[in-house]
Specification:
By secondary structure, the protein is α+β, with helices and mostly antiparallel strands. It has two domains: about 150 residues, 3-Layer(aba) Sandwich (Rossmann fold), CATH 3.40.50.800; about 170 residues, Porin. The protein contains seven helices and 16 strands. Helix 2 packs parallel to helix 4 and helix 3 packs parallel to helix 7. It is rod-shaped.
Length: about 400
């Protein structure tokens, strides 16, 4: 009897242990493994190779807020292709939610974003008041970028909410605005289908020639210039044609006319001048509507003089610096104001002799007038630029 009871107890213990192990195994297997999330990031493009203190503060604020919501920030080196082209290239990396860059101006700050999923460029503009400091603006930039990226991670894009609702209060650029942003880089970066090239009328052996990215400049201006103390300021005009080989460089070839004016006493010496010059200017933008250039002028001046019944022509080589400010009136049209001075490399004097047979020395020599070494110079006029836009 005791053996039977022991046997029953042993069987019940085995059944209970088997049931307990089976339950535990079922409960563990019912808990799913933690999902592995793919790393997500945003790309932050720098405005320049050497950012200012304000730009560095903005980048740090963006990184801090992005990391607080679990996003990593990638900051590639600036490229010379433009930020839109670099954004399109950077967006192809795996796990990129969006590519951001910032443009800061004296009165406005613009946040740009390229979203790969929507294949569109979004912007948000913030008013800037430098007199009140930029601390609040820096904090706002970090919050806007981080919240926008977080919304993208949750698929809250303009595509999901319609054209009027975009994350972070950002607005989608239309086709015209996008073309003005950087049309060349946008066309080059856009993937093209594999289609055969169109047929051309070019003959056999011809090669395609790419159009250089060079702008032109036409100018017409009032010209004021001095000759000597007797004629400190003479008025005239100047016409020119220039090229813009680089966004910060311009080269002008100009013709100027000044005079006539009285450059001497009795008898009266009348002079007027023709000038052919080359101007080389280096500068850039001072905001959205102003440009500033420092210009070196090299000119050949031909002075036509008239003294009673005699007349003649004297050449003068001149060089000098100019400081020029351009004010954009409408697209391509500028009001240019320049001030500077010119230095004559070869001076000459107008001399009268008592008689043609005299030695023209001493009392026989009469200096009517002489050209000055340094003279002031000023210009006010209009220029029209097409092709490349200087400073942009």
């Amino acid at each position: 009897m005791a053996r039977s009871v022991s046997t029953i107890v042993l069987v019940l213990a085995l059944v209970t242990a088997a049931s307990t192990l089976g339950f535990q195994r079922t409960a563990v297997s019912a808990v799913p493994p933690a999902p592995t999330q793919a790393a997500v990031s945003i790309v932050l493009l720098a405005e320049s190779v050497a950012p200012s203190s304000l730009e560095r503060a903005q980048y740090e604020a963006i990184e801090d807020h992005a990391q607080s919501v679990g996003l990593s920030v990638v900051r590639p080196e600036p490229s010379g292709d433009g930020r839109l082209a670099q954004a399109l290239e950077s967006s192809t990396e795996r796990g990129v939610l969006g590519v951001f860059w910032i443009r800061t101006r004296p009165r406005k700050l613009t946040i740009y974003m390229y979203e790969p999923r929507a294949q569109g460029v979004f912007i948000r503009e913030l008013e800037r008041t430098p007199d009140d400091g930029d601390a609040a603006l820096i904090e706002a930039v970090g919050l806007i970028v981080a919240s926008t990226a977080a919304a993208l991670r949750e698929h809250e894009t303009g595509e999901a909410h319609g054209e009027q609702a975009h994350p972070g209060g950002m607005r989608l650029l239309d086709a015209d605005e996008l073309a003005k942003l950087q049309p060349v880089a946008r066309e080059e970066a856009r993937p093209q289908p594999d289609v055969p090239p169109p047929a051309t009328d070019a003959g056999p052996g011809s090669t395609a020639v790419s159009r250089p990215n060079v702008g032109l400049r036409l100018l017409a201006a009032y010209l004021g210039d001095g000759f000597n103390r007797a004629a400190p300021w003479q008025s005239g005009a100047r016409l020119g044609l220039g090229v813009l080989p680089h966004q910060r460089v311009r080269i002008d070839l100009a013709y100027g006319f000044v005079g006539p004016g009285t450059a001497g006493g009795q008898p009266r010496l009348r002079v007027f001048r023709h000038e052919i010059g080359i101007d080389v200017g280096v500068g850039g933008d001072l905001g959205d509507r102003l440009t500033l250039h420092g210009t070196a002028v090299v000119a050949a001046s031909f002075v036509r003089w008239r003294l009673e019944q005699r007349r003649g022509l004297r050449p003068i080589a001149r060089v000098g610096p100019m400081l020029e400010i351009g004010i954009r009136l409408v697209a391509g049209l500028y009001l240019d104001i320049g001030v500077g001075a010119m230095v004559s490399l070869n001076r000459f004097a107008f001399v009268l002799c008592e008689t043609p047979d005299s030695a023209c020395t001493g009392e026989d020599r009469d200096v009517v007038a002489s050209s000055g070494r340094v003279s002031p110079r000023g210009t006010v006029g209009l220029s029209y630029r097409f092709g490349r836009t200087p400073g942009r």
